[in-house]
Fold this sequence. Notes:
- By secondary structure, the chain is α+β, with helices and mostly antiparallel strands.
- It folds into two domains: about 5-235, Cytochrome Bc1 Complex, Chain A, domain 1; about 270-365, CATH 3.30.830.10.
- About 40% of the residues lie in helices and about 20% in strands.
- The protein has 15 helices and twelve strands.
- It has helices spanning about 55-60, 75-80, 105-120, 125-135, 145-150, 160-170, 185-190, 195-205, 220-225, 225-235, 285-300, 305-310, 345-360, 370-390, 390-405; strands at about 5-10, 15-20, 30, 40-45, 85-90, 95-105, 135, 145, 210-215, 270-280, 320-325, 330-340.
- The strands form three sheets. A seven-stranded mixed β-sheet has the order 1-2-3-9-4-6-5, with helices on both faces. The chain has a three-stranded antiparallel β-sheet with strand order 10-12-11, sandwiched between helices. A two-stranded antiparallel sheet has the order 7-8.
- The chain is globular.
- The mean pLDDT is about 95.
Amino acid sequence: MGFKHLITVKANEVIPVHKYRSERTGLTVIVGEVEGPVVNGYFTLATEAHDDDGLPHTLEHLIFLGSEKYPYKGILDLVANRCLASGTNAWTDRDHTCYTMTTAGSEGFLSLLPVYLDHILYPTLTDSGFVTEVHHITGQGEDGGVVYCEMQGRENTGESRVNLELLRAVYPNSGYSAETGGILSNLRTSTTNEKVRAYHAAFYRPDNLHVIITGQIKPDDIFKALEPIEEKIVSKGALPPFERPWQTPVEPLEESKNMKIEYPADEEDCGLLNVAWRGPKATTEYDALTACSVLLRYLTDTSASPVQREFIEVEDPYASRVGYSIVENSVSLLYISFENIPLGKEDHIFPKLSELLASIAGGKEKLDMHRMRNVIERYRLEALSSLESNPHDDIAFHVIGDVLYGSDETGVIRWKPSSTWSL
């Protein structure tokens, strides 16, 4: 038994992307045939948390402190340098954790691959490493630890506090509302190495690991490089049944909410405001989600947009900047953000915005279809530019969405040729 080919699609009808799965271990390999000498790896796991202990973020840090076969801190970067890699890195999002590496050529990549996966699947997770990396008390009686100091730098910023409370209001009783980086009080009193080990056992499994590779590299060479880690996985014995993360339906949102969040700042003369809505399901309504993205850009982008015209390009502005964002969860989140709002104007923005949107929706203010065509064309050109200038990340980010919310067996990654985008 080896790796079974599941599906092949093409990014914008140009770059082939192949998906394979190991019949022995459930390990998934996805290869995007991006041209050029660089080979990138994105080793992705779907991770879900339901508290603020920061277990996904904490575990991400501890992975780099050594593994069963290589039980020394720093050896991964040492091997990476010898394999012509530009180091290793990782990020933790609310719905997944991804470990990355970039090498010049495929030979070094294939040499580093089993070493990296040994760190991901079989880290040491020692108590001493946890104390040093996550939280401890220094000789001066102060809180220390890499994870703790990182969260200390952003927990009480206005953006972080508003964003967290927004997610908790939009996704009640859901993993989307957890602070995956960890709340400082939890990192001090609740987060433990035992919890980290249990979290690793629950989610860092071969059948939840997706090895995404972009570059000129042969699938057979990848499978050969994976043989040692496959043998090790099999030798560990059968694992308990795996429940795929993010399968619990998101609770319906019964009512609207208005919230005021206080946060520390050097001056008390301005604030920020987010107006958010539940959006289409990213899993089944991708066309509608794309339409929402285009509409939000029409409403907020450039000084000619309706929102900027009414809130920014006036004699007494309501804010210094307005923008929008989309969070592609299983049920998406759409929001318009206002920054640097003068104190006293924050209560006037939502009623005025509601009146403006109602006017557009009711037809009182007509859509500028010429400008809408320009917005769609610019959106299309940006998508093409991204695929041309940064194809590695562009393909990987699409694939990660498929990993999290696509079909478990084949997962048709949603790429449409740019020529189909029209009005």
